[in-house]
Amino acid sequence: MVNIILLFCIWHLVGVFGYTDAVKSVSVMEGESVTLNPELTDIQRDKEILWRFGDSRIARVIRNIPRYDVDERFRDRLKLDQTGSLTISDIRTTDSGLYQLRTIIGNKEFTKRFNVTVDGEHNYM
Ligand SMILES: *[C@@H]1O[C@H](CO)[C@@H](O)[C@H](O)[C@H]1NC(C)=O
Predict the structure, then answer these.
(1) Does the CB atom of residue 83 touch ligand 1 within 6 A?
(2) By CB atoms within 10 Å of each CB, which of 26, 27, 55, 98 scores lowest?
(3) Is pLDDT at 123 greater than 70 in this prediction?
(4) Probe residue for ligand 1, chosen from 28, 99, 115 as the CB with the greatest number of ligand atoms within 8 Å
(5) 27 lines ligand 1 (CB under 6 A)
(6) How far apart are the C-alpha atoms of 85 and 49, rounded to whole Å?
(7) Using CA atoms, how far apart are residues 80 and 119, in angstroms rounded to an integer?
(8) Where is the Immunoglobulin domain (predicted)?
């Protein structure tokens, strides 16, 4: 019983502050694909799911339809599905950085961040 009450308290706190996960680190080899899966279990169909890379919006799901922003860096290399999973193919060292998903769940903003590190055989700098 005490556990249930505690759980409600935690839910309440989460509700107040919104949902922000810790940054998840993802390591990928150059040339490979990576899927950033936010593991959203409670997707609201009418809500937008938005992905950013750094400061740029790169893709979003609107009413279940994936849309991609025009960004030469990711030309033809992004695949977004209805659940918000983002697949980046043919990874390049320049794809390293912070990817952030934002959506609304239960009227609260939900944020999930992935820190992608690309390991190349060579480091072009
Ligand atoms: C992402 O990972 C790199 C390499 O491990 C690290 O230097 C950087 O601080 C990380 N960035 C964030 C926002 O966690």
Answers:
(1) no
(2) 55
(3) no
(4) 115
(5) no
(6) 10
(7) 23
(8) 23-119
CA distances from 76 to 8, 22, 65, 79 (A): 44, 29, 17, 8
What is the distance of C-alpha 86 from the center of its chain?
Answer: 7
Going 57 to 48 to 104 to 33, the CA torsion angle's sign is negative
- Write the pLDDT tens digit of every residue in 40-66: 877 666 789 999 999 999 999 998 899
* Spatial contact of 40 and 84, defined as CB atoms under 8 Å apart: yes
Q: Quote the radius of gyration of the chain (alpha carbons, Å).
A: 17
Q: pLDDT band at residue 77, thresholds of 50, 70 and 90?
A: very high
